[in-house]
Specification:
The chain is an alpha+beta fold. It has one domain. 33% of the residues lie in helices and 12% in strands. Helix 3 packs parallel to helix 6 (172-196) and helix 12 (330-341) crosses helix 13 (343-355). The structure holds iron/sulfur cluster. The site of iron/sulfur cluster has 13 residues, from helix 8 and helix 9.
Length: 389
C-alpha cells in the first residue's frame, strides 16, 4: 500500500503529479554518512571557522531587522516544546494507516500549512550529533531517534512580498523566519496532537532539528533537488518555502517521490548561479557529495553572503530569481502544467522568464520599513539610506 490518496483540503493538484519510485536525484543510500549539525554553514560561522567578522555577524544577522528579530524571538521561545510523553491509552479511532494519513494531512492543512507529505524516515536523514552551544568545539550531543515515519510540512514565505523584494534587502530574513517559525508552530501542535492520540511524536524545526530536511522532502514527494545547493523546489511553491517535520510511530502510508522535470529544467536554466551575489552556486554539472549526486554549493560563500550582507538582512536572491517562484494564478498554473509535461515548454519558459522581466523587484508592492537594529536588542533602530518608504 503506498502513494497518494485524495483529500478535501489540498490547495494544489498534488494528485496530478507524476509519482516515481525513487527521487530524481541519484542517492547512493549505502554511502551516505550521518552528519553532525556542527558542520552546517551557520554553525561553522558560530565556531569562527570563517573568521571573526562572520562569527560576530552570525549572532545578529537575523535580529538586526526588528521584524525578523521578533519572529526569531518567538521561534526560540517554543524550542523546548518539541517533545513529550504520549498518552498511556490509544485514542478510540481507526488504526488504518490510510485513514490516519488522510486525517493527518487534513489536520496539517487546517493548521494553515501550504503542503504536506509523508515518508519513512531514512536513517541517514537523522543528525548523528546536535550542535552543543555550550561546548561548540565538541562533536555535539549524540542524537537518538527511532521513529518510523516523517511528516513534512511546508509553509510559503509569501508571494506578495517575494514580488517586491530584491532578494537581499531588509525583508529577506523576515520572509525566512516567518516560514521557519510558522512551520515550527504547526509541527509542535501536530506532534502534541499525535501524542494525545497515544503515539510518540517529535517536532523538528529551525530552532530545534534532529533531522536533515532535504532528503525527507524528496522521499515525501514534496519536491526535487535543485541547482540551489541543497534546496528543494516544490512544483507549486518553487523554492519559496521553509519546512518543519514531525517524526512519529503513528501508522501511516508513505507518499512517493515526484518528477516534474526539474532536473532537465535546472540543467539549462542556471539563472540562480548567474545571479548569486556570493558566487556560491555553480553553473557546471552535478557531482557526488556524501552519496548524493547534486549540483555543488559553496557553503562558505553562501553563509558569508547571508550572514555578512551589510545592505540587508540575509539573502534569498536565488529564491527571488528562480522561475519557479511564481504565484498560483490561472496563467502560472497553465504554464506550470506545460513545463511539468513538456521539455519544449521548459526551454521556452527559461527564455521567456528573462524576456518577461521576472526576477526583478516590483517596488510598488513594497510594504516594509528598512531599519537596522544596531545593537541587536530592539533598542536602537537606525533608518537605512535610500529607504523607499
Ligand atoms: Fe533551477 Fe533555474 Fe531555479 Fe536555479 S533558478 S534552481 S537553475 S530553475
Amino acid at each position: 500500500m503506498s502513494g497518494y490518496h485524495k483529500r478535501n483540503l489540498d490547495p494544489f493538484p498534488v494528485n496530478k503529479l507524476r509519482r516515481v519510485d525513487r527521487p530524481t536525484t541519484f542517492i547512493d543510500d549505502g554511502q551516505i554518512k550521518r552528519v553532525k549539525e556542527r558542520d552546517a554553514g551557520f554553525m561553522k560561522a558560530r565556531r569562527g571557522s570563517y573568521g571573526q567578522t562572520y562569527q560576530k555577524e552570525v549572532g545578529r544577522f537575523v535580529t538586526k531587522h526588528p521584524l525578523s528579530g521578533a519572529e526569531a524571538w518567538i521561534g526560540l521561545m517554543i524550542r523546548n516544546l518539541v517533545d513529550g510523553v504520549a498518552a498511556k491509552q490509544k485514542a478510540p479511532i481507526q488504526d488504518d494507516p490510510k485513514v490516519l494519513s488522510v486525517h493527518i494531512k487534513e489536520a496539517v492543512y487546517f493548521l494553515r500549512a501550504d503542503a504536506v507529505g509523508i515518508c519513512e524516515l531514512p536513517s541517514y536523514a537523522i543528525y548523528s550529533h546536535n550542535f552543543d552551544f555550550r561546548n561548540p568545539e565538541s562533536d555535539g550531543i549524540p542524537v537518538e531517534l527511532n521513529h518510523k515515519y516523517a511528516i513534512a510540512i511546508l509553509v510559503d514565505q509569501d508571494w506578495r512580498t517575494a514580488q517586491a523584494f530584491t532578494g537581499h534587502d531588509w525583508i529577506s530574513n523576515s520572509m525566512s523566519m516567518l516560514a521557519y517559525t510558522n512551520s515550527g508552530f504547526i509541527a509542535i501542535i501536530l506532534a502534541e496532537y499525535i501524542r494525545r492520540l497515544g503515539y510518540p511524536a517529535r517536532a523538528h524545526y529551525a530552532a530545534n532539528y534532529q533531522v536533515v530536511v532535504p532528503p525527507i522532502l524528496l522521499w515525501a514527494g514534496l519536491g526535487e533537488m535543485s541547482r540551489i545547493g541543497d534546496c528543494i523546489i516544490n512544483p507549486f511553491l518553487g523554492p519559496r518555502f521553509k519546512a518543519a517535520v514531525v517524526t512519529t510511530d503513528l501508522p501511516l502510508v508513505p507518499d512517493r517521490p515526484i518528477d516534474f522535470g526539474l532536473q532537465d529544467f535546472c540543467s539549462s536554466c542556471k539563472k540562480c548561479a548567474r545571479e548569486c551575489l556570493g558566487g556560491a552556486l555553480s553553473d557546471s554539472g552535478k557531482e557526488m557529495h556524501n552519496g548524493y549526486e547534486k549540483w555543488p554549493l559553496d557553503v562558505e560563500k553562501c553563509t558569508k553572503m547571508r550572514v555578512g550582507n551589510q545592505n540587508g538582512s540575509g539573502c534569498g536572491t536565488c529564491l527571488k530569481v528562480c522561475p519557479w517562484n511564481k504565484p498560483y494564478s490561472p496563467l502560472h498554473r497553465a504554464v506550470g502544467w506545460a513545463v511539468r509535461n513538456s521539455s519544449l515548454a521548459r526551454r521556452i519558459a527559461i527564455r521567456g522568464d528573462d524576456l518577461m522581466g521576472y526576477g526583478k523587484p516590483n517596488y510598488s508592492k513594497k510594504w516594509w520599513f528598512d531599519l537596522e537594529d544596531v545593537e541587536g536588542n530592539g533598542v536602537l533602530l537606525k533608518p537605512i539610506k535610500n529607504n523607499t518608504n
